[in-house]
Amino acid sequence: MTGTVLTEHIDASSDRAVFRQIADHLRQAVAKGRLKPGDQLPSEVQLIEHYGVARMTVRNALKLLQDEGLTIAEHGRGVYVRARPPVRRLASDRFAQRHRKEGMAAFIAEAGQAAATPHVDMIKVTEAKPPAEVADRLGVADDARVIVRSRRYSLDGRPVETAVSYIPADLAKGTPIAEPNPGPGGIYARLEESGHTLARFTEDVAARMPTPEEARLLSLPPGVPVFRLVRTAYDMDSRAVEVCDTILATDAYVLSYELPAH
Amino acid sequence: MTGTVLTEHIDASSDRAVFRQIADHLRQAVAKGRLKPGDQLPSEVQLIEHYGVARMTVRNALKLLQDEGLTIAEHGRGVYVRARPPVRRLASDRFAQRHRKEGMAAFIAEAGQAAATPHVDMIKVTEAKPPAEVADRLGVADDARVIVRSRRYSLDGRPVETAVSYIPADLAKGTPIAEPNPGPGGIYARLEESGHTLARFTEDVAARMPTPEEARLLSLPPGVPVFRLVRTAYDMDSRAVEVCDTILATDAYVLSYELPAH
DNA sequence: GAGTGGTCTAGACCACCAC
DNA sequence: TGGTGGTCTAGACCACTCT
To answer: What is the pTM of this model?
Structure first.
């Protein structure tokens, strides 16, 4: 029912553009609960008739809401208030040693806790020269060789994260790290077995709109930004042993960190 | 010069929408360096003439790039490749006690390190009932009283962050925490003076597109998401003594965290 | 087939900016 | 004053979804 939605009309004396006024009305309808997540908005034709404007005007209004991440248009069906998917909390202890000891890579272990079905695909392992930013973080020369492990993670069939790991080739060559399946506990378990006990990680978190490529890989609807999370793993000798460049769908994650006040 | 930009033409046999093809060409021009940050894109008229399409088609293409955060349109001047502002790294030790001891609130201390001129405005201090989410984090009843401190932070004249702090009224009443100016070292210094030595913080980080209100307060151009960072401060008795709800411009910040691998 | 949103055309007038 | 982007109209045809 849209009967309780189309109540306001355009204020012709206002300086505010007509399509912004229409967007304002619809936004308010969502804010006040007249439209709830999953509800269908009035169709373009209904909006055209109610407001007495051209189609492009209502489309501009609807585009505005979509760009804000408030609604999602479904071709042939209608425009709906976006139903926020449940978010996963990424705790800062997710790389704690105890998880590796249990033979679980971080993503799989976490998915289990959340009662979601994890899946990993698009696994590709190559050897190459690292990007300059990665070489810098690893503390190796630009022309050093690194193992590049890329993959995509999904939960309950929905892709939520892509990741590319860079490991110095001298640490990875001849170990399962250079293989598509690195074995139980993931590459961190392998690194520790070869004497590089992990001491700490740093994580740099940025957020921005996705590139078209990222939007495709993560099946992102319009109006959803991505986290770019770059993690560097250090061993007990403070040597950087891995850099992991991750793109996360922001509608699927809340990152959770614990800071000492020392 | 746009002479090296308008080289491609529309592939009429492609399934890809014309405006997406135009956006692709311009995006590639930026990726390949034919258009650099700050450069002006071909005007709408130039694009119309080059591609032989209607104005709405090139406007759709330009809107797409703007929504990706790649370009910025300036009314009456032109469309430009967005020049990324320098980002500030927010280190995870920014609330370390030593900063408070030096009599500096976190934001001011950090700005000094970055050689930027900090400014705080729109300071408002009230007493109210906390939002349910905040009451939950503070571990107080929904109808408890809290001091609400809101303010906006700017760097070199550019607003970058809004923050709302909630402090249980019984901790704040009659102290400078309930005053607009809480004194040297900020409210954390006052809390510690009154016996609530800070032990740790948690930070939950989410990202999304801004509401129109947030976009206004932070002067955000289209295509720039915000971080929502909710920090909870705990004292040595593990009592939550403050919840701070912060909105940050993502084009101004990289958040940096340190994680132990214990 | 009826209804939905997606793309595109060909105009119009306006507001802002630089010269 | 001329060029720029911002808003709006009034159409058209298409692709998708549901019944």
So the answer is: 0.93
